[in-house]
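Notes to self after the call with IL:
- keep both proteins in one doc
- input above output, always
- annotate only the second one for now

Protein 1:
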Amino acid sequence: MNLGKVVQVIGPVVDVEFASGSLPKILNALRIKKEGVKNGEGNVTVEVAQHLGDNMVRTIALGATDGLRRGLAVEDSGAPLTVPVGNACLGRLMNVLGEPVDYMGEIKSDQSSPIHRLPPSFAEQETTPQIFETGIKVID
């Protein structure tokens, strides 16, 4: 497990320092654990945006940074953010972390995909008109 610590917080931008030679990859998800918060409800997920040098990375917070301070522990997930995909997601609302925000319980999906990935090649795309089912009645 790769651990670091918060060095600087400026709005949604959080700078994190890691041990020498153990910088996380760009687009990796990091979790900052706030002190005094039960069940991990107040934890903040950030995404690595830039390597600054001197064993530091610049991250973008994907939630409120209220209560963050220098010295808090940061854990590298070792992977980019992933969200559930497939038929279980049709008609559901979720945030960028893949957590449901529609009060309908957990999204039970067998598959998940990273939020940053390569677009499909032109050979995989279709140019014929077809119905795109969104699961949202107003749009469909």
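Protein 2 (the one to annotate):
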Amino acid sequence: MMLITQQSKTITMLLIVLFFAAASVVIGATLSDYHKRLDSARMSVAALRKLEDEDRGYALLKRENLADIRRSLPQTEMVEWQGGNVQTNNQWVHDDLAAYIDESDLKERKAQLLSIEERLSAISEKIDELEKATAAERSKDEDKQKLAEILRRVEYAKPEIKDESLFQKWWNAFWKWLEDLFPKPSISPQTAPEFDSLKLLIQVLIYAAVIGAIGFLIYRFWPQLAGRFGFKTKEKKRGRVILGERIGEDESAEDLFSEAERLARDGLLRDAIRKGYIAVLCELSDRKIIGLARHKTNRDYLRDVRKRAGLFENMTDLTGTYEQNWYGLRPSKQDDWEDFRDRYKQTMTSV
């Protein structure tokens, strides 16, 4: 009888434990707790990146850091806050860590870790802004939409495909007119193969003759037409957008770096490093080494110069200093700016 009673108590205790475990899953994590675990995972990724420079004796410590990251950020979980509940999706962290483990090249492994750290920093910074903004008593639907946008990393979203330009419409209309002018021959099963080949050859020759004639006419008469109608041959320089900052039409990389030095003298070291990094990208764009785009991040620009060994090494250091000071949680120091300025000058003289 006593044995049955003891078994009943054990079963009852197990049911209670399972009940509270299930309740905790339903309740979910708070936004503050999720924010802390994001920062903890970012610190573990930063530690992993530093351990890449050590010998194999740190393999156990690397595995522990990987386990901490996966434990801090499960693939999906429910986050509760003032605006409601949001289902997070941290699958990308696990996928990027798996790619990092499979990678054998040291530089690529460090680059992958830096990319994860940058993405976690960006999300953490946005959530920090959101937590401070909750005191403004925004509506529940606006808060829920804002958090969902942050967790989807909209700052890295690709721009929407624009409609066709007027030139593209004219170009497509021209080719359609050309196809209608010389329609494709209808091939029947009874047609001999040699006649099919001959028809195709004639059609290609006609296309080539028409295109050649149009090209010759443009080449021959365009200078006179351009001079008569006053067309300008010099293209107006357009404004540029680099890392979300709009650069004026007449601003050069030298102007941007002069502004960075002024910010450094005023004690705004973090802003000075960001302005200096934008000056680097502006100079590389002017020298046709990289192409600027609104959706590109600093990691995208770094990948653009990967084939240039010397430049890639300098850009890796510049990018690391920029990310640590712009996305990092510690204040920028004078040494950070001086190191960045020296590397900037070295980069400009090497390209």
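Annotation: The two ends are 88 Å apart (CA to CA). Confidence is low (pLDDT under 50) at residues 14-26, 232-236.
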